[in-house]
Amino acid sequence: MFWKFDLHTTSHIDTLLEKEDVTLTEVMDEEDVLQECKAQNHKLVDFLVRPQCMEDLVGYITQEPNDDVEEKIKYKYPNISCELLTSDVSQINDRLGEDESLLMKLYSFLQNEPPLNPLLASFFSKVLSILIGRKPEQIVEFLRKREDFVDLMIKHIGTSAIMDLLLRMLTCIEPQQLRQDVLNWLNEEKVIQRLVDMVQPSQDEDRHSNASQSLCEIIRLSRDQMFQVQGCSEPDPLLATLEKQETVEQLLSNIFDKEKNDSAIVSVIQILLTLFETRRPAFEGHLEICPPGMNHPSFSVNQSILDAVRPRLKDFHQLLLEPPKKTVLNTTWGVLDPPVGNTRLNVVRLVTSLLQTNTHIINQELIALNTLGVILDMYFKYLWNNFLHTQVEICTAMILAMPSTQSESPEINRENDQEPIRENILIKHLFQKCQLIQRILDAWGSNEKEQAEGGRRRGYMGHLTRIANSIVHNSDKGPNGPQIQQLISELPEEDKERWEAFTSGQLADTNKKNTVDLVNTHHIHSSSDDEVDFKGSGFHQDSSLQQAFSDYQMQQMTSNFIEQFGFNDEEFADQDDVGDIPFDRISDINFSLNTNESANMALFEACCKEKIQQFEDTGSDEEDIWDEKDVTFAPEAQRRTSSGSTDSEESTDSEEEDGKRDPFDSANATSDDRMEVDSGDGTVWTANFDDIPMDTGSSMAPSAPVSTSPAAVPETAGWNSPNTDAESGWADFSSFTPVSPKDPLRSNSPVAMETSIETVDPLGVNAPIQSNYCSDPEEEPVSDRITETVTNGSMKETVSLTVDAKTETAVFKR
Known about the structure:
Layout: H1 12-17, H2 24-28, H3 33-38, H4 42-48, H5 51-62, H6 76-85, H7 90-98, H8 100-107, H9 118-134, H10 136-145, H11 149-155, H12 160-171, H13 176-188, H14 191-198, H15 205-228, H16 237-242, H17 245-256, H18 262-275, H19 303-309, H20 313-321, E1 329-330, E2 335-336, H21 341-357, H22 360-369, H23 371-381, H24 386-401, E3 411-412, E4 421-422, H25 425-433, H26 436-452, H27 461-477, H28 481-489, H29 493-504, H30 506-514, H31 529-533, H32 543-558, H33 561-564, H34 597-611, H35 653-658, E5 674-676, E6 684-688, E7 730-732, E8 785-792, E9 795-804, E10 809-813
Antiparallel strand pairs: 1-2, 3-4, 5-7, 6-10, 8-9, 9-10
Helix pairs in contact: 5-6, 6-9, 9-10, 9-12, 12-15, 14-15, 15-18, 17-18, 17-19, 18-21, 20-21, 21-24, 24-27, 25-28, 27-28, 29-30
């Protein structure tokens, strides 16, 4: 194991902390100081919680660094100090949260004049946020004692880190009662009113944006908390203050009663859009988990907000006509003078949210101002502003699908024999006053004309197509279908004909193009050979037979279904005992097939002959490699002596699997069991006997002289002369003399050869050699040499076999 060898490394910080005069900066210069702190290194934590070290750490994140420090390392120590203080070590949290002098030094950062250093502000906010989460009681008590805390927070609201800290106080405090106390305290300090005052033209854009975002987050967090926490009888005081009519009126007064400021107007509209957000229940029955007696304000807009907005609708309408001054905007397709601008885009979004409330008095005010007409004018004027096009599409779709309110006009009848129709004043205004149908037709025609002349397709055409489809859909299936049909029928005859031709022609063609599949969706058949082979086969389908079989299946499934559903006890009984199972109507079914059996059989045989080819190997000239061959061995007196296990003609599986080819293996020879011998001089080949253990005999074996004449070669020798018609250069292994099993000295070679050895030492490696073949005089003596006489056609050649007992390698030389 690793600890056996003491491979663990000791941190350099431990060695550094053993010094008596070590400083905080020296420790912070170490690369692994943060890792060691998070790992709660005892020596390091004990060093950091010293009073002087804690004071220095807080000082780094609350005081501006010296200007003479290099910019690269200017904020090095403040950053490391923040990470150490927020490493979530309990000893550090305890020391910092319970020491009021350290908290006062930390709090002093808020007392600096704006603007605050954004980097140091983020360090301050991060440290105080983790203290609020870990020590909520101590921190809240400390902050409530500071009378200027809310004033300082509002003063520095332009710094994003301070805004985050304010929101942390609403989300990081876990005890519900403590959180409610904090909300009441902040409401008493009028934090909502102070944030509202920040959204006015006299303030800068950073304060506008951060104050608006703070109010929006307070609304969302309060509404979410209301549904997450059950059994809370006290309402959220901050949300209640925000939804008051006077608060909304103050917001609107800040932007309309003073000079027009684009940033302030957009910020106020963002707050109003958040107040108008309606949240639907996430699942059925969600309303039941809410505390009883609540009116579920998240599912409907508070009436006080609508009452505050309605008198200001004319001011929002005027913003659409006269927005804040914008510089001329040059684009790739032309000049925008004036551009749409963020102000007018957000006003259109506000109108969409007001329409979603479906409030009768709001709808009447918008109709009186003709706000929808102005929005449609902007739609067709700004061809390439898809943000505007999207909002206009949402407005029209919402109006067409919106049910009429109870306070609108009474029911009207088209004819006496038809059902009454409740009139939707917005739809009537859209078709009659705004002339939506005529404007769609005119815009479509103008676009086609421009495209025919080589111009571009207008940018709003996609949204215009969806608006036209919405009209067609709602006229057929929408809740206001009868009214829409009546309004279309009341159009001038020319416009009505144009609309009918448009919906059946151009619009239908466009929808067809838009619904074309991007890829081919045809059925992909299996690539199985069987399916391909018989795919074209046609089988006669007898309708009566199919109907009979279908009836049988249905009868079997429905008969006694209730009693036999599931497992039946009879299924687990012996089959011999189950002899009374009813067949119901199966005997009544007549499966009569009027087919020509002989023709079908002939067709089947023809297919089989065509598909199947018989495997015939007759007439092949090749010899069957699996035929057994007769093997004869040389006489005992002429065998080479050796020791080892009995060797036979059988080969081991390991030799076949390894794929090692033995030159003496009969499987590698041809049908004549001959071995080709190259007649060239100096040819050397190697026989590898790695898989055959080679042992040497311990006794002397008599050797016989090897004759070089043809007559001296016995007929039973292991190397026989081939027939006269045989090819030259082949050695014949067709006959060998059987080996006596009583002889303990046996060669490990797969084939015993004719050898001539005079003496063999006990290890068989230094035996003297007799040979009538003259070897190279410069050749060094080898470990074991055997001389063989090989018949090659009409002549005899003597070859020497050198065997190395260590490497088990045999080398032939001529």
